[in-house]
Amino acid sequence: MKPKSQERGQALVIIALAVVGLFGFSALAIDGSRVFSDRRNAQNAADTSALSAALAKIRKEPFVPAAEDRAQSNGYVTDADSKVEVNLCNDTLITTPCQGIPTTGKPEQQDPANYIQVKITSTIPATFGRIVGRQEFTNIVTAIAYSGPVDPQPVVNGAALASLKEDGDKTLLGNGNVNLEVHNSGVFNNSRNNCGTQINGLGSYWVETQFQFVSGTYCQGAGNGSLNPVEQVNSIDYPPKFNIPKPTISCSGNGSIESPNATNGFKYIVSPGNFGAQTLNSVFPVIFEPGNYCFSGSFKINGTAPVTADYVRFKITQGDFSLAGTSTLTCNDMLVYIKDQGDGVIFGGSNKIECNNVTFYAETGKVSWEGNTIVRLFAPEGGDYKGLLIYMPYGNNEELMISGNANSELTGSIIAVSSDIKIAGNTGTTGLHSQIIGYTVTIEGNSNLVINYVPEEQYWQVDPTAVTLTK
User: Fold this and answer.
1) Are the C-beta atoms of residues 243 and 465 closer than 8 Å to each other?
2) Across the strands, what pairs with 83?
3) Is 216 found in the same domain as 329?
4) pTM of this prediction?
5) Quick one: which of 214, 262, 263, 398 could link to 235 by a disulfide (CB 3.0–4.6 Å)?
6) Which residue(s) pair with 139 in the sheet?
7) Looking at 130-236, which runs of residues are DSSP E strands?
8) Directed axis angle between helix 63-73 and helix 32-58, to 10°?
9) CA atoms lying within 13 Å on the CB side of residue 339
10) How many domains does the chain have?
11) Alpha-carbon dihedral of residues 121, 124, 125, 131, nearest 10 degrees?
């Protein structure tokens, strides 16, 4: 009888084949999930990098570093494991054609030069995939964002009077015999507290649109002041991202002051350059010649001097810019920049200030005018500071005080991101064409605050949400 053939060892073959299949499925599950996760992360990085680049380009800032910095913050840089490429879509060096650019609409929306592509190539080393001969995997993702002209918008939704603080009581306070009228706009309070807005005294409050409060409520103290209509609205992020560039003012050499004499018509003639602390006590006219003036100390004008400052830039790194006595200041195209250890801008006494195309940028220090000062200030009608009258950026916590004479006229936005704004005294501002934005806002005394809000006269900025991805 012939013995049966032995089948011993066949199980090993089956197990070996099963192990290969098992490792194959492991490679598919583990390496596949790693590749999928990296692709998702790379796409998110490309999307945010493209948006950052587009916003930087619109702000006239270097857009390639903006995209690379954002990609790096998400873990992607140009090295052995990944590559980040940033190009305009009309760039001849671009390696992957841009997709999603409209073929209809406005000409600027069809122009490839107005689109930025961010391409991220990442390499993922294989783990179990090496068993089946795959050493690495490669992900290639792209994102395209529109970086062309975007219509700017009024800040803080176009509210004529706004308090930015996110919580706390009395962040918007009316106290005293206050008369508030807001034409063509309304009032906004960002506080979540029920008494974020409080009305005391015998004042009257009227707006043409709405009182927009995040809390949807307000509190009444002594008196019978009331608000109507009150609308509950969504909060805005604090601090809001105002895209307002810092002034760049540089001076070369020392400035000079020519004393009054018969040759110059008995005037002080001030020439541009660097100065230390300077105080002018004069009855003679003071003329600032066009140019840049850099002060390392306070710049004060006292006495009764009429002062003219046209086409000038003042940078004050210590001390303050101030007027006192009965001096007058007239100017056109003037920029005052308070920085470093500067104490701010102070108008007092019985001054008269009349300026067109003027901006006060107080990086440090306070801004105030008090007493019987007559202030007529009009913001620039063009340039980087179009519609911006006073700006106190985030981090400057000094007060902004508006009080005094009833003949004030202001046009342009007054923005004090971290500052308490107080409007006090017998202030009559029927000529007020401004948007007033502060950390908190207090109206007190016998203030007669009438705001004729005209959007086109205010500071507008590009809304970052208007910068969108195309692909």
Assistant:
1) no
2) 121
3) yes
4) 0.73
5) 214
6) 122
7) 136-146, 153-154, 161-163, 172-176, 179-183, 187-189, 197-201, 204-207, 211-213, 219-223, 230-232
8) 150
9) 13
10) 2
11) -110
